[in-house]
Amino acid sequence: MTTVSTGVRPRRAGDMIFTIINYAVFLLLVFLCAYPFYFLIINSISANDVSALGDVRWWPVGFHLGNYKEVFQLDGLPLAAVVSVGRTVIGTAVTVLASAFLGFMFTQSKMWARQFWYRFVIVTMYFSAGLIPVFIIMKTLGLTNNFWVYVLPFVVQPFFIILVKTYVEAMPESMQEAAEVDGANIVQIFFRIYLPNMTPILATVAIFSAVAQWNSFQDTLIYITDQSLYTLQYLLYMFINQANSLAQAAQNSGGNLSSIVSAATSQTPTSIRMTVSVIVVLPIIFIYPLFQRFFVKGIMLGAVKG
Amino acid sequence: MTVSTLVAEVTATELDEPGGKKRRRHEKQAGGRRSYGMFLCIVPFLILVFLFSYFPLYGWIYSLYDYKPALGLSGSEFVGLQWFEMLVSSPTQMQQIGQVLVNTLAISFLGIATSILPLVFAVFLNEVRTPWFRNAVQTLTTLPNFISWVLVYMIAFSLFSSTGLVNSILTDSGLITAPIKFLDTDQHIWLTMTLWSIWKGVGWGAIIYLAAIAGIDQSLYESARIDGAGRFQTMWYITVPQLMPTYLVLLLLSVANLRNNGMEQYFVFQNAFNQQHIQVLDLYVYNIGITGNSLSMATAIGMLKSVISVILLFTVNAIAKRVRGTSIV
Fold first, then answer.
1. Is A306 part of the contact surface with chain B (CB cutoff 8 Å)?
2. ipTM field
3. Torsion angle of alpha carbons A44, A46, A47, A52, nearest 10°?
4. pLDDT in tens, A41-67
């Protein structure tokens, strides 16, 4: 008995130490990932003179929510918010519908040269002509400084088509056969029978697409010079890097801001940056935990097939 | 990025065996008449694919011209291989391109070298036995994957700029007198870029391994425990080896995806101080093409990237054939 207990005890002690260290390391990682978001939030709701000095570290100092009202008086910000929301809503809707339709159509082996066209679409994941040729094409097509550059290039997304196609292939074929017997054509079959039954996979597609649209920055950078088409992400980038444009924006909105003279509430570059950042990140923070299972499902569907 | 690797994996099988083992829908009718109507339904989408993915390939022809957007292609002067000759004839140009290639490869290499971290993360998180803590860790560490690089830069800026949080804490505690320049420096750029990628991606990357761990046969652990294996031994001799196939596949795919390392991250972090070491190929093409307005030269350099990526893809594909038995493309 004694030999056994001496054999077990050190291992248990080792186990305890390991468990404690393990939890501690993960707490540290959680801190590293979560604190930056917390930092942005507490700075955006603190007294602006304190946040400008960098003295807001662990909790809000001089709590006020005025910044959120006032940043929307900044030049271009309300419009940028509209553009960002617009591209996210329209872009996601179009992408989801197109992915659903194409994913479904590519299961139809009756289609002429189906295999060829399927590959024609999927293989585009593996090559790109490069930034400049694409830029020139966009320009030729009149898509530079055009809202539709935020939508059209994302309509056909090979990955989403694969997800939908895989999903449809697992659905019972008899659904389609029954509808065919009743004389429904392929478009009716898609809209009446398959589309309503695809919602789980379409939710996954929608959530990935919406996050990508909301976060997109590069397309504004390359294709847009018209300020009325700037997105929130692009505006935030300008606010971080170009102190001049920020001061300008703050000044232009001065007419509305001048009535408030308190140092704690008048806008500083820091307060504007922090507040815009929170506006940009808040939708993600809210939707992510709610839709986490859809994200995970998306990645799993990809993996299981591999 | 991880999603795109997985994506690649899905398509790998799709392209490998089109329709292959899968039951084909409507096999019986398939032999009969072909439906052109169905094809017509998808034509509008095929046109979009052609316009945005295939048609730009024709744009490679710009590398043979001195393209001026105002004049159009017909009005621009045909210069033959002049841009390609320029790339290799001028020593300063050669040196600059060389540096850009080194940056691209170095950052990619660091990315591959650290690709084991999500696996490590998952293996250790699996040892956390408190469900709510596990879920909280998973949710919070995955969050950075879903924010844009602009926001990552905003976080970097507010924490690490000379007036940022870290510097003000260090100054207040008297450890330093002058702020440390974390961002406006040419030091350790490759490393810091890799660290930010890890911060953004490690939690998300771990999800796939956590799922793989959940799929490991529990009897392996039971028999190991009966044989007297401790916690570390089960982790090292069972969990890790069981995850290796998944890891290798993802690794190969990430090598194949090198070309996709994009420019957003490097664009937002670039400044006058670090430009020499942060400029990767994509960013370089952007800088000289869109900012510097020499479209033809940039097209020529962009083609260089395509050539490199094709070579890489085929190399990896060949390795994958050996290791895995099936090709990934």
1. yes
2. 0.85
3. -60
4. 999 888 888 887 778 888 888 888 888
